[in-house]
Amino acid sequence: MVARDHKEPDLQSLSLSDMRKLARRNTPPEAWEHIMGAAESRATYRRNQAVLRKILFRQRIFHDVVNPDTSVELFGRRLPSPIAVAPVGSFGKIHEGGDREVAAGAGATGAMVFVSHAASSGPRDWAEAASSPLVFMGYLNRGKEAVLAYARLAEELGYAAVGLTMDTIQPVKIGDHVALQADGAPRQGRSSSPKDIEWLKGMVSLPVVVKGIMGSEDARVAVEAGADCIVVSNHGGRILDSNRAAAEALGEVVGAVGKRVPVLMDSGVRRGADVVKVLALGARAVLVGRPICWGLAAGGAAGVERALRILDEELKRALIMTGTPALAGVTRSILITGGAGI
User: Fold this and answer.
1) Are 237 and 39 in contact, with CB atoms under 8 Å apart?
2) 240 Cβ partners below 8 Å, 6+ apart?
3) For residues 332 and 335, what is the distance between their CA atoms, to the nearest angstrom?
4) Cβ pair 91, 99 in contact under 8 A
């Protein structure tokens, strides 16, 4: 368990950068390395953020937008924001009870939480701690029976959706080393097949999410197999080094399947402005991981809430400064993308 700073921070005065610094001090080195680590040269990790930084906004000031509508519908639920918590399995590495605090902090803002099969808490624990909608994301390398048991429990508990994280055909790497499981054994990859999607689709009545898609061909295969939602993701740069940024793949995937199913994105999002850029490129909502870890390590549930509220404030600021009254008006027209090559 992580020892918190003796002096409680004034969370309401902290920025995301402040929380990152505090999180690093509060988190054991091995846990910090796991949370912030990426595969091999970290090229994909860096590219995720670099591409988003190169995208620019078209500022507009002659308008009457002062309180933009940031609500969005996903899986039949009306959410106050398109910002959701990504399925991070290592909240428990930050400190004991981390999963529950993430659920509580997200619930205070109404943010949807994508629950990782790798988390230390099961679907029931998350449901007991959460007051906002949940989505369970299974890992097939833990066994189909384990995935099905959790997926059916999630359905029973009122989750909004279930899904599969399918890009782990090779295990997560931190630098040059394969990350270890909770029991100390190296993680194992598992091949992915559209039959896995068909299988889960036939076993539950909830929408089925497929995460880890980085191209149009895989997106079409997933949707044809029954996926109800696609998450464009390169696993935060932890699977394939020298991969495209998620934002670079997003437009291609939206073009292939975006009229049939909602497309979400994670990997590299660090600011509310990044969220607006991703929405303008065609995503319905955005999953955020590492900034949630910073909030958790900096201040528990209150820190998670603070991180999400900062992201929401930055999101609204970008909408106001581009003259966009609601998320429906967020299109490529508010962006300058030439420098990003998108």
Assistant:
1) yes
2) 39, 44, 170, 234
3) 5
4) yes
DSSP run (H or E) holding 25 = helix 16-26
Q: Is 235 marked active-site?
A: yes
Structural tokens at position 289: 């991981």
Q: Domain-by-domain residue ranges, the chain?
A: 12-55+70-315
Q: Report DSSP state, residue 212.
A: E
Residue 47's closest CA among 222, 243, 205? 243
User: Around Cβ 9, how many Cβ atoms within 10 Å?
Assistant: 18
d(CA 274, CA 106): 19
CA distances from 339 to 44, 55, 56, 195, 321 (A): 18, 7, 8, 40, 20
Q: Is pLDDT at 4 greater than 90 in this prediction?
A: no
Domain 12-55+70-315: CATH class, spelled out? alpha beta
Distance CA 304, CA 109 (A): 10
Q: What b-and-e string marks burial along 25-55, b requiring 16 or more CB atoms within 10 Å of the CB?
A: ebbeeebbebbbbbbbebbbbebbbebbebb
Percent helix, strand, coil in the chain, to 5, is 45, 15, 40
Question: Residue 330's pLDDT is what?
Answer: 98
Choice among 34, 95, 117, 235 that is catalytic: 235
- The mean pLDDT value for 108-119 works out to 98
Residue 22 in 3-state DSSP?
Answer: helix
Spatial distance between the Cα atoms of 299 and 296, rounded to a whole number of angstroms: 5
Give the C-alpha separation, 265 to 282, whole Å. Answer: 10
The SS3 call for residue 261 is coil
DSSP-based three-state secondary structure for 324 = coil
Q: Which two tokens stand for residue 102?
A: 């993430």
pTM of the model: 0.96
